[in-house]
Amino acid sequence: MSDETLKLTPLHAAHLEAGARMVPFAGYSMPVQYKDGVLKEHLWTRESAGLFDVSHMGQARLRGVSPLSAFEEVTPGDFIGLKPGKQRYSVLLNKKGGIIDDLMAGRPDDDGLFVVVNGACKENDFKVIDDELAGQVRIDRLEDRALMALQGPKAAEVLAIHAPDAAKLAFMETAAIPAFGVDAIISRSGYTGEDGYEISVPGEAALRIWNTLLADERVRPIGLGARDSLRLEAGLPLYGHDLDETVSPIEAGLGFAVSKKRRDARDFPGASRIAAELAGEVARKAVGLKVEGAPAREGAEIADAEGKVVGVVTSGGFAPSLGYPIALGFVPPSLAAAGTELKVIVRGRAQAAQVVATPFVPHRYVRKV
Amino acid sequence: MRFTKDHEWVALDGDVATIGITAYAAEQLGDVVFVETPEVGKTVSAGEGLAVVESVKAASDVYAPLSGEVVEANAVLADAPETVNQAPEAGGWFAKVKIADPSAYEALMDRAAYDAFLESL
Fold it and tell me: Residues A292-313: what's their mean pLDDT?
């Protein structure tokens, strides 16, 4: 895709001014890193607060007579039981129980369901929802809104200056909060493993709000490069890499997204496969690997102790907070236990890799306020 | 010192060429977190992979600017890959190669030509 056809976020000018290196991502021109570089940006987010432009992601309101119950037809989550002010992580499933996309869906107010999906998947996601739920919900895409994430141990004290009510939110709570002189939708969530917020604001106010947050010396802009290494350390899967239409939530280790009520009811797409997997018939399982030597990246083969290829790395790289390479990948269930010694094949050579529990770096979510 | 369009540098001492990547290349790569250097005794042809340098994000090949036999690899990089960022055109060298044809060295870009090449990017 040539640069001319790339879409720009409302924060594009700020990225250029900050000296960001821009790359095509999900059809947008996005900052992969700023002047500090991936390593320093990563570590800054873990020790202070990082500000991310994630305006490429798809924001929408699902409205209708009963959007919550309708949304259960395309996901395995308990949305009928979703209380106002709460948000859930969920997955859009195909008929075979494969993941079309992963997403956040919440009730910041009484105005239907507020949904955020991956940028690269959004056109297809909204088409699938529209096709499956035609006549039940109306999808109002919020393309005039920007989305930024403020992540890190100092995110809460910074945001409290501008949006005191945001401090009252616990992890996975969401609210429509007047802040920065606009109607913001703020949730205490993110994709770094740190405490922090995702902040949806009108696009025309985004640049001013971005600059206001960056004026605080505790906050620095963070690019997609560090966003990727942060989420990898947090053991969070990335769609298009660790998740795709063949992968079920059980294989991916996302069983928590299949609610108890829905497991019993078996009333979601691909329920028979997922029920069988829950009963033990699972072909592969996502695992975390601690890698010795060179980083094992996406596509690297995983072998057992005897050298037989048993799986594949779905994302991997150097973990800046740990100082060694880590990876996520699929292996047979018999080799998925923590402590299992495996190999990864990097440039034709077998390197030692050990199955470890994820997250690699402990989550620091604030679950109670 | 001589340079390639792939941003390697070569310094020749007798028939032994020390090879690394330029300051420009190191800056473009960002923080180097791992370097795979070649084994001593390996024969390399010009344009062939000599080493692999890894940043947080990606792995990049370093190509041999000249043909020859690897006589030494930079052992410092195993424990201190960041040397490539700190001193790309000095202590951050990757390998020393005994070259077969010293005249090939003269055919590479000199500093002025490389600087002009960078300007054109």
Answer: 97
The SS3 of residue A298 is coil
Cα–Cα distance between A53 and A145 in angstroms, integer?
12
DSSP class of residue A127 equals H
**pTM here?**
0.95
Q: What is the 3-state secondary structure (H, E, C) of A86-105?
A: EEEEEEEECCCCCEEEEEEE
Q: Is A348 on the interface with B (CB under 8 A)?
A: no
Give how far Cα A199 sits from Cα of A82, A185, A227, A336, Å. 20, 6, 16, 37
Residues 6+ apart with CB under 8 A from B3: B9, B10, B22, B108, B109, B110, B111, B113, B114, B117
Residues A220, A74: Cα–Cα separation, whole Å: 38
CA distance A150 to A134: 35
- Cβ–Cβ < 8 Å for A23, A30: yes
Dist CA A241 CA A286 (whole Å):
12
CA A279-A327-A188 angle, to 5 degrees, is: 80
Question: Residue B103: pLDDT above 70?
Answer: yes
Distance CA A242, CA A236 (A): 9
pLDDT value, residue A294:
96
Query: How many whole angstroms separate alpha carbon A192 and alpha carbon A227?
Result: 7
Tokens of A33: 């890193």
Question: Which of residues 21 through 60 in chain B touch A, CB cutoff 8 A?
Answer: 30-31, 33-34, 36, 52, 54-59
Closest alpha carbon to A198 in A78, A117, A319: A117
Rounded to a whole number of angstroms, the distance from the CA of B4 to the nearest CA of chain A is 24
Residue type, A170: A
